[in-house]
């Protein structure tokens, strides 16, 4: 019996193969067409990305800055126009978007904020396309009038073109959210306590642990954090509404198959009463527990904010004789401050270390090279997550004056206009 079954199986396979060869003219052209489209899209995208012209601006703030991250939230809201793609409303718009993606390699614009520890100093950067430089500079000066912006060479140019190698070691990771996008992280509002006076606000800077980790860098060490942002539409809110429905235990609409619909029509034709299942009601806000109520309030508040597709990438690089493997863990631990059991938090989405399977060392080395290349290119993540302007301002903002990290570069003197009655010689 087993031999007969094997013979039947082989006979079926040979028949299928012969049919494929016989009708090759039917299936090969579509396969080649879609393969050509895939190759064309990848080639056009590579060329489009290589032709993008970027500028890197270093940002410095005054020593006596007393700004809440609220100012940075307003800055993010003003930068929301970068990379925004309006939804296609007609088939013609969809065709144009498809044609631009396949044959021109067009991708939405994005911008990058960076906090970098370079050999004992912490630097703040923004990287934007040349076409968006005017918008970025105007908005930064509008919200931080006493800040200083200057175009600088890319600090990554001082590092090897590819790493790790014989003399240079790297490590890092890419971050993601531990829960669905609708759940917000802890934001700067939870780190503020109102004092006795109206202006008396006790603020714990959530970037404190990250700044201290960057402050520990010694000569030759580079530890950078990239925050990549691209404007999002409101489609994420629709997905978030499904999360709220789950919290409220809202019953899903039953889906009828063809047979159930047929039986209903038969009952109606025979005059028999239709049997309707017992309808369950969703829980109201008052019926939820205190923890669920706080979660619902946080999610609904995030719905009122503008949002970005975002990514976070961390890279630590140093010569092998100066490499300290604990550095990455120190800065990663700083992101634990934004986590909450009832809301969201950050987790490692991609780590180069391969701990199981064959060729672990070779695979780890390959992953490190990929991560290093993506950081160097500021490549937008393949699977971004959603952050609102409030969340973005929490993880990236200029530290308050209360943060006493000595390596933070600050403007030593305020700039001012000359007096109007100054005599001209």
- Rg is 28 Å
Terminal Cα span: 111 Å
Helix content estimate: 25-40%
Strand count: 12
Largest sheet geometry: 10 strands, mixed
- Number of helices in the DSSP assignment: 12
| Overall geometry | globular
Counting helices, strands and paired strands, the structural category is alpha+beta
Low-confidence stretches: 416-420
Strand content: 15-25%
Give the helices and strands as they follow along the chain.
HHEHHEEHEEEEHEHHHEHEHEHE
Q: What's the overall average pLDDT, rounded?
A: 83
Structural commentary:
- By secondary structure, the chain is of the alpha+beta class.
- It contains 12 helices and 12 strands.
- The strands form 2 sheets. Strands 1, 2, 3, 4, 5, 8, 9, 10, 11 and 12 form a 10-stranded mixed sheet that branches.
- Mean pLDDT is 83; it is low at 416-420.
Quick structural overview:
The chain is α+β, with helices and mostly antiparallel strands and 425 residues long. The chain is built from twelve helices and twelve strands. It starts with a helix and ends in a 14-residue tail after the last strand.
């Amino acid at each position: 019996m087993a031999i007969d079954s094997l013979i039947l199986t082989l006979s079926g396979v040979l028949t299928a193969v012969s049919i494929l060869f016989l009708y090759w003219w039917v299936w090969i052209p579509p396969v080649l067409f879609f393969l050509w489209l895939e190759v064309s899209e990848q080639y056009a995208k590579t060329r489009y990305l290589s032709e993008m012209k970027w500028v890197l601006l270093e940002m410095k703030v005054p020593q006596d800055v007393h700004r809440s991250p609220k100012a940075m939230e307003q800055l993010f809201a003003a930068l929301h126009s970068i990379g925004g793609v309006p939804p296609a409303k007609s088939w013609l718009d969809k065709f144009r978007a498809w044609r631009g993606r396949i044959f021109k390699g067009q991708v939405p614009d994005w911008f990058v904020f960076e906090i970098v520890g370079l050999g004992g100093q912490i630097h703040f950067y923004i990287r934007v396309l040349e076409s968006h430089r005017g918008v970025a500079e105007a908005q930064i000066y509008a919200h931080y009038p006493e800040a200083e912006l200057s175009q600088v060479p890319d600090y990554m140019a001082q590092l090897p073109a590819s790493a790790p190698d014989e003399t240079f070691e790297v490590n890092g990771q890419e971050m993601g959210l531990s829960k669905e996008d609708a759940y917000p992280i802890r934001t700067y509002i939870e780190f503020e306590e109102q004092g006795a006076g109206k202006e008396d606000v006790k603020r714990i800077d959530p970037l404190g642990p990250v700044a201290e980790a960057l402050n520990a860098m010694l000569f030759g060490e580079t530890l950078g954090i990239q925050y990549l942002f691209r404007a999002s539409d409101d489609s994420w809110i629709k997905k978030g509404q499904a999360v709220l429905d789950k919290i409220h235990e809202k019953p899903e609409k039953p889906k009828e198959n063809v047979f159930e619909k047929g039986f209903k029509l038969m009952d109606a034709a025979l005059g028999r009463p239709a049997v309707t299942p017992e309808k369950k009601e969703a829980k109201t806000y008052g019926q939820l527990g205190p923890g669920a109520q706080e979660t619902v309030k946080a999610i609904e508040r995030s719905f009122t904010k503008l949002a970005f597709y975002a990514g976070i990438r961390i890279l630590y690089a140093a010569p092998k004789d100066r490499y300290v493997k604990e550095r990455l863990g120190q800065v990663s631990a700083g992101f634990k401050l934004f986590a909450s059991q009832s809301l969201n938090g950050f987790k490692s989405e991609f780590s180069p270390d391969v701990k199981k399977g064959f060729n672990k060392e070779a695979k780890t080395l390959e992953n490190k090279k990929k991560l290093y290349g993506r950081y160097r290119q500021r490549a937008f993540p393949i699977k971004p997550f959603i952050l609102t302007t409030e969340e973005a301002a929490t993880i990236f903002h200029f530290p308050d004056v209360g943060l006493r990290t000595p390596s933070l570069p600050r403007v030593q003197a305020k700039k001012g206009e000359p007096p109007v009655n100054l005599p001209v010689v």
